[in-house]
Design brief:
Strand order of the largest sheet: 7-6-3-4-5-9-8
CATH topology of one domain: Serine Threonine Protein Phosphatase 5, Tetratricopeptide repeat
GO cellular component, one term: cell outer membrane
Number of strands: 19
Helix content: 40-55%
Structural class: alpha+beta
Radius of gyration: 24 Å
Keywords: Repeat, TPR repeat
Pfam families: Trypsin_2 (PF13365)
Number of helices: 17
Shape: globular
Distance between the termini: 85 Å
Largest sheet: 7 strands, antiparallel
CATH class of one domain: Mainly Alpha
CATH architecture of one domain: Alpha Horseshoe
Length: 497
């Protein structure tokens, strides 16, 4: 029995548990991998909808690997297969793996569905292309369940156990609802399970002021599942592919740097910014050419002030913003082709009131990735800051065509709402600001903006309620500059005749 390079040797002794079918694979095009993702991915409907991937079949029973938090509580769950058929699953048969955020669920069907080929996740090295698929939650833009397939780059692949097993970090843009979906290699093999996204961190209100995506998402390597399956009593016929593809010599091998970057990603997700900063400092000391470490260190620095542009513009935080900008400059020098890095630098220039520099970086981000909503969101806010209302509305409209669901879309609604109110479309402006609040209810600035518009349009009592809510949120989150500004507006409101 032949195992691919890097498959844990412990599995050899578990041959009665895992049956391996060796299949040689080569790199595929993105469209070919997308076709595989469409056939192996499922949606899991329940209290907190998520995604999964079919990994095995026995008789009429299919086995789906997903993130354990997708099926965290006893509930009535359904698996929706690629043919849009619904299959009930018994919660009593849900198998959660110990110490990691993984679970296996099962459903019965007479229909033939494609099973994933499991790859060698140890070969997923920094700089390699990767793909993530899943079913985002429905909302304003995505009104029907739709499989989202996203391309990105591996940032780190830790060889040591991370929190809940999350050792893979990648730049693919993901949305809430994609947890449990497959992380696929260039060969179309399953190398991980997606479970934590940067958008999830923002949506959870840990950091509702973040206006830009830094570009990190977290997954659990498939090797973790393979090592735990035998001891978890899972008797599955798995298809494990051996790869003929070899990694380019320029790719970074898994190392201590990967461990540190993965550790920092988990810390950032949990809001432990100082711990993340410490891990990233170590990573950069170990490998000064690790571009992703510089990019994430900029996030750790700015996260300490909530990525708030008002906090960033205060004199006491200027050095912090400049340090973050220096990190991003180095990240871009080392890897000039990552769109998110230019968007981050554009935001930092926006904070530093370098409008021309911010615009140049936004344009470069769009040249690299014209389907990314983030540069449009940022430019809409920049234009609103410059009182170029119609142009701000146009960019916000474009951003919302690309992404009207994620918490980041709140900043597009906010910019458009302020712009519409400023050209005397008060009703439209208030509608947009309300949408921003609904998407990100922990953001003090959104309440301050809506409260100001309400007060100036004659609805002073409603405006005061929003301003007081803004002050409360700003105080809770330590947003000193926001609190000062909203307090000033409340005092002005009191003095109005």
């Amino acid at each position: 029995m032949k195992f691919g390079y890097g498959i844990p040797s412990v599995l050899v002794g578990a041959a009665t548990v895992i049956v391996v079918q060796s299949q040689a694979v080569l790199a595929l095009s993105a469209s070919q991998v997308a076709s595989i993702a469409e056939q192996i991915s499922v949606k899991i409907d329940g209290q907190a909808p998520g995604s999964g991937v079919m990994i095995a079949k026995r008789d009429k029973t299919y086995f789906v690997l997903t993130a354990a938090h997708v099926v965290e509580t006893d509930d009535e769950y359904e698996v929706i297969t690629p043919d849009n058929q619904r299959h009930s699953l018994s919660y009593a048969q849900v198998k959660k793996l110990p110490g990691v955020d993984l679970a296996v669920v099962q459903f019965n069907s007479n229909k033939p569905y494609q099973i994933a080929n499991l790859g060698d996740s140890s070969q997923s090295q920094r700089g390699m292309t990767t793909y993530v698929a899943g079913w985002p939650l429905t909302g304003t833009a995505i009104t029907q369940p739709t499989l989202l397939f996203q391309q990105g780059i591996i940032s780190a692949n830790s060889q040591v156990q991370q929190d809940d097993g999350y050792g893979l970090i990648y730049t693919n843009n993901t949305l809430p609802g994609m947890s449990g979906g497959p992380v696929l290699s260039e060969e179309g093999t399953l190398v991980g399970i997606h479970g934590r996204g940067e958008t999830d961190r923002q949506a959870s209100t840990r950091n509702p002021d973040v206006v830009v995506k830094v570009g990190y998402n977290l997954g659990i390597p498939i090797s973790t599942f393979l090592s735990l399956a035998p001891q978890s009593g899972l008797n599955l016929d798995l298809q494990i592919a051996t790869s003929q593809a070899t990694a380019p010599s320029t790719e970074a091998k898994p190392s201590k740097v990967d461990d540190l970057i993965a550790q920092s990603g988990n810390q950032l997700y949990q809001g432990n910014n100082e711990a993340a900063l410490g891990a990233l400092n170590q990573a950069i000391e170990t490998d000064p050419r690790a571009a992703d470490a510089y990019r994430l260190r900029a996030d750790a620095r700015m996260a300490s002030i909530g990525w708030s542009f008002m906090e960033g513009r205060s004199r006491k935080n200027r050095d912090l913003v400049l340090a973050a900008q220096q990190d991003i400059n180095e990240a871009i020098r080392l890897n000039p082709n990552l769109s998110d890095a230019y968007t981050i630098r554009a935001y930092l220039k926006f904070v530093l009131q370098d409008g021309a520099g911010a615009t140049a970086d936004i344009n470069q981000a769009l040249r690299l990735d014209p389907q990314n909503a983030m540069p449009y969101i940022l430019r809409a806010n920049l234009l609103a800051d410059q009182r170029q209302w119609q142009m701000a509305i146009a960019d916000a409209n474009q951003a919302l065509k690309l992404d009207a669901n994620s918490p980041y879309a709140a900043f597009a609604y906010s910019a458009r709402g302020l712009a519409r109110a400023s050209i005397r479309d008060i009703s439209g402006g208030l509608q947009d600001l309300t949408k921003a609040i609904n998407l990100s209810p922990g953001n003090a600035l959104f309440y301050m903006s809506r409260g100001t518009v309400l007060a100036l349009s004659g609805k002073r009592n409603e405006g005061r309620v929003d301003l007081e809510k803004s002050a409360s949120l700003a105080q809770q989150k330590g947003r000193t500059e926001v609190y000062k500004e909203v307090t000033k507006r409340l005092n002005l409101l009191k003095r109005l005749p």
